[in-house]
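dumping this here before i forget
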Amino acid sequence: MKITITVENPTPEVLEKLLALATTPTAVVTAVPDDRWTPERARSYYDRLPPRAQQILIQVVEGEGECGADELKANGRSLRGSTGAFRRVLSEGKRTGLWPDALPVPLRSHIVGGQLKKLEMPGCGSEQYPLTAFEEALGDLVPRDR
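structure:
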């Protein structure tokens, strides 16, 4: 049996009491902060993206967290409207209670002089960096020959 409890903006005291309540000799308890991507959240997010946005996300994961706009547009592929899906799908998931409100958008656009230069996963080097969660979630879709 699996029980999922969501506590928004918990105080340290509440977390301590909740974890104490959940500890039994056979229990395995894990706590995932609301602002972190997990492989489960990442796969659920990917599955809800439109096909072109899915391709872009795979390219960013293949690029170890970033991908240049020229590479994304290779072979005449367009980015028009595709990058907006990342925020839209996340917002819809938050609104329906699928994901916590504090979960950040996994991709950020870098625009220089009005031109998109690259897409990257924000937070490199921090606990909020989503690359590892997306690599695990999309491992069956990302080629391993890098």
